[in-house]
Amino acid sequence: MSSDTASGRNDVADWWRTSIIDMEPGRIAFRGTEIQDLIGKVSFPEMIWRMTRTDIPTPGQTRLLEAALVAAVDHGPQAPSIATARMAVTCGLPLNNAMASAVNTLGDVHGGAGEQAVELYAHVESYDGPVSAALDAWIAARGKIIPGFGHRFHKPVDPRAPRLLALVEEARQQGACDGCHAAIATAIEAELADRKGTPVPMNIDGATAVIFAELGFAAPLARGIFCLSRSVGILAHAWEQMQQGGRNKGPTPPAYRWTYDGD
């Protein structure tokens, strides 16, 4: 084989580079572990960790990640992502297209607060000053909306957040995390209540962000993992709508009309 041919083949082989999977006929390995040694032995949350990280989680870390995944699966058809999935099915789309349409609505406003809350906790952690000053600096740079706190529907408390924080505390006591970010989130919650004169409790995004931060996930992965979690609800609603039937269902019943404010 000529050197030019060998070089060309290397150019092709090196076009994509990955440390995630090694595969050849009759063999599949993820991060150095054969697939047959993972199947039936590793949970799906642990597999998510192994695929997105280079380390292997402890059982306590896996349980905490699983709790975050379970907590965020669904929030009903009033959530844009869920409504999109159901509407897509009534337009004749199969499940995969409905799911893709729905996941694509998970952006900075709907679905992005968890990532932003992880960034907020990191900001407060690294800030040279009290939580109040760190929060002022955040607001000056990012705006008045504080990600992960308050909820337009669940008042006075998002029922998911206290349970998740309790599990974080259990994990801290068992050595699965150090509780640093849970303490930061609680301090932010207290500061917001002091400023508003009324409780501004942590919501699902703030609580799952505590878990992702405690487990050492990078902020963008918080959104990615939320998408994995919410995909379960999206699939369930798309499938349910498929069983119910219906054609071309829009966001409101046909008898209702939008407000026209033109001339």
Automatic annotation (TrEMBL):
<dbReference type="GO" id="GO:0005975">
    <property type="term" value="P:carbohydrate metabolic process"/>
</dbReference>
<dbReference type="InterPro" id="IPR002020">
    <property type="entry name" value="Citrate_synthase"/>
</dbReference>
<feature type="region of interest" description="Disordered">
    <location>
        <begin position="244"/>
        <end position="263"/>
    </location>
</feature>
<dbReference type="GO" id="GO:0005829">
    <property type="term" value="C:cytosol"/>
</dbReference>
<dbReference type="GO" id="GO:0036440">
    <property type="term" value="F:citrate synthase activity"/>
</dbReference>
<dbReference type="GO" id="GO:0006099">
    <property type="term" value="P:tricarboxylic acid cycle"/>
</dbReference>
<protein>
    <recommendedName>
        <fullName>citrate synthase (unknown stereospecificity)</fullName>
        <ecNumber>2.3.3.16</ecNumber>
    </recommendedName>
</protein>
<comment type="similarity">
    <text>Belongs to the citrate synthase family.</text>
</comment>
<dbReference type="InterPro" id="IPR016142">
    <property type="entry name" value="Citrate_synth-like_lrg_a-sub"/>
</dbReference>
<dbReference type="Pfam" id="PF00285">
    <property type="entry name" value="Citrate_synt"/>
</dbReference>
<keyword id="KW-0808">Transferase</keyword>
<dbReference type="InterPro" id="IPR036969">
    <property type="entry name" value="Citrate_synthase_sf"/>
</dbReference>
<comment type="pathway">
    <text>Carbohydrate metabolism; tricarboxylic acid cycle; isocitrate from oxaloacetate: step 1/2.</text>
</comment>
<dbReference type="InterPro" id="IPR016143">
    <property type="entry name" value="Citrate_synth-like_sm_a-sub"/>
</dbReference>
